[in-house]
Specification:
This protein has 67 residues and is mostly helical. 73% of the residues lie in helices and 0% in strands. It contains 3 helices and no strands. The longest helix is centred in the first third of the chain and has 25 residues.
Length: 67
């Protein structure tokens, strides 16, 4: 015999959303604990301040800038 429960869709959606946020925080903490990760962040920040980036608006822009 199997026991079952019912979970409202809204609650399930909220649980999933919460889990996604926890995963994002853990990924950030992992990156900040890694010396190479910190260096990547610093280089990216320096490039951003210099304006050394491309704004991508859609998939066609991605393809155009990959060449």
């Amino acid at each position: 015999m199997t026991d079952t429960i019912t979970i409202p869709k809204g609650l399930l959606r909220d649980l999933y959303s919460g889990l996604a946020k926890v995963e994002e925080v853990l990924a950030t903490i992992e990156e900040l604990m890694d010396k190479e990760g910190i260096e990547r962040i610093r280089k990216a920040e320096a490039g951003y301040k210099k304006g050394d980036y491309v704004a991508i608006r859609d998939s066609q822009d991605v393809l155009k800038h990959m060449k």
